[in-house]
Amino acid sequence: MALEIIESCVNCWACAPLCPNQAIYEATPHFLIEADKCTECLGDFAEAQCASICPIEGAIINELGEALNPPGSLTGIPPERWAAAQAEIAAR
Amino acid sequence: MDLPVIESSPPAATGCSAGSCGSTAQQVDGLSDAIRARVQDHPCYSEDAHHYFARMHVAVAPACNIQCHYCNRKYDCANESRPGVVSELLTPDQAVRKTLAVAATIPQMTVLGIAGPGDPLANPQRTFETFRQLALKAPDIKLCVSTNGLVLPDHVDELARYNIDHVTITINCVDPDVGARIYPWIFWKNKRVFGREAAAILIGQQQKGLEMLTARGILVKVNSVLIPGVNDQHLPEVSKVVKAKGAFLHNVMPLIAEAEHGTFYGVMGQRSPKPAELKALQDACEGDMNMMRHCRQCRADAVGLLGEDRGAEFTLDRIDTMEIDYEAAMVVRAELRAQIAAELAEKRARAHPPAATATPQVISFQPHAAKPAPVPGRPVLMAVAARDGLVAVHFGHAREFLVYEASASGARLVGHRKAESYCSGDESCGDAESVLEKTISALADCEVVLCARIGYEPWGQLEAAGIQPNGEHAMQPIADAVMAVWHEMLAAGKLAAGPIVAKRA
User: Fold this and answer.
1) Residue B497 falls within a domain, yes or no?
2) N or C: which end of chain A has fewer CB within 10 A?
3) Are residues B387 and B315 in the same domain?
4) Separation in Å, CA of A38 to nearest CA in chain B
5) What was the ipTM of the complex prediction?
């Protein structure tokens, strides 16, 4: 049982100091979580701390590969609106 | 001749300070003498200083504890100039080395700020380690910090310990209902908190932090982002509230929102304010508060004078190869500061003669005092292509224009306009509108453009747009040039107030 940081991480350092198990470490190209140390904050906090401050939707996933912060959940931008805006920019 | 007069005038001590109700009070220039002495070489806090002194930001603070709808933490574009954007994150040691390198190379550099790209106080170890080292190694540099305020109350004592004399808090609202449309979430007490509840906590912390800072005598500037339809009606209230709590300067900045920035506002089509809307709001707040008009909304790793960015000269690769003799640099810096301070004092004495209630015999020495009662003329907005306080830039080379309002009471800075789009280096950022058309559009509310020189084609296009180009005051001090043109317009009968205007072309 462990969380994972994936490639959309922007290396903002916000999560690392919050981890009760010091499981998060700086790495290239992005921060990583030591799976052996991660408890998903069980017993320490009601919510996983890294996922509670991470500003990037989708950057932290659980063992099932599910994003703890799915698209639209942090920015408030509906995913379809985001896709439309990206398509419009690409077409310029 | 004017200098002793100014010094002998009694300092504004209590009650009605010279800064808030004198007839010549204007923005920072209208501050009390005590505050002016503290900000006179700080380019972000003093309009006068920004013509001469440079600042730098070191990007040591990447983490943030809130989300704002105008910010996107993903993007790092070398061509973008806006808050929150950086190219290279620094460790505290790297930031200290960079600061010493810049200070040794640019003697005008007086201020080191930490402004992100996240929130400096959400990165307390990195931020305070940088301040701790700089307080020891660069004692002649002012340290300042910019924060969203969420954890400010926890850090006020430590800010005071490192002699941080200036703090900027970004306060976009004092009403949680407004805040809920600006801040989607905050990280608070080990949880992510959303919506109105989040905004209420943030506002409470900001106001508490503001009060704690001013109680310790730390100067506080408040930044607000003007978001049309969201907080535009609300900002005059914000201005009143923060002034009552002791903030000394309010900086209302226009929202920057483009879809390509990937921000909520950009993607959702929230528009940015027009220059005239920004000015109108700043004017509306001005009755109650000193308003900052010269902010350039710089990057969190900006280096140099406001409006320029010399960051590319000081990348980590480059500063590693630089020889730094900071002791020698400090001597040069002290001499330069003294020289500029003397120039500014002289300029201020000329520009802002004491109010009529001061000793009458002093008035008789002022150059304008001998004039007959002035014919009232309406105020005129003029754009100036300026450098170092002079009309010194070719129209076509200007990357920005300072906008002055000229009237019978003098020239005062009321804003600045970019002459190029925020993204200029990458074809994917550009669009069809030419740079000249954009410039003319940005200057639409100005009647005159003052510049060192100007080409034939832009001259014609400006005239066609109702903006008179003027290259006759090259290398003159801005206020002198602006007022000379205003008096010419007045003498030509172009400034009659009221509906019937006799036009003499």
Assistant:
1) no
2) N
3) no
4) 17
5) 0.96
